[in-house]
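does this look right to u?? heme C version
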Amino acid sequence: MKLSKWTLLLVTVMVTAALLPVAAKSQGNAAPAGNVNNGKELYLKYGCYACHGYTAQTGNGAHLVSTKLNLQGFTNYIRNPRTNGMPTYTSKVVPDQQAADLFAYIKTFKEPPAAKDIPLLNQILNEK
Ligand code: HEC
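got this back:
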């Protein structure tokens, strides 16, 4: 049987259409998804809490809960902090997957309210 060129074209289009979403999906998932439970373990294991607090809201380091960094920026920062206070965590010590886990864990905390939004504090300040 001889296939016409239209049949071949049709088959090519159908195969391409079937494969495209797979290609698009694998590209979109380049950054590893973070696992919150692993992130919690790593946050304790690597001692992040010592400088950033158990809830990422306190400590001598930056208040991580308010970070404007995205996952990529976060990973770059811990690899090359460029400040004295923050230790360097290379990809050998904290691989990309672990960085994603840490980031996911940090993102589970809520930013603390501003001082003006704490009723008890306002009540004390307004007492005469
Ligand atoms: C010895 C103390 C110390 C430890 C331990 C530590 N940090 Fe830090 N970290 C700092 C300090 C200090 C800064 C603030 C540097 C600055 O603002 O110049 C900082 C800043 C950061 C920032 C930048 C935040 C921003 O928005 O700019 C990230 C992200 C960060 N730390 C993540 C981590 C993670 C994750 C760990 C654990 C793997 C960790 N740190 C452990 C001291 C520490």
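Residues 36-112 form a domain with the Cytochrome Bc1 Complex; Chain D, domain 2 fold (CATH 1.10.760.10). idk if thats expected tbh
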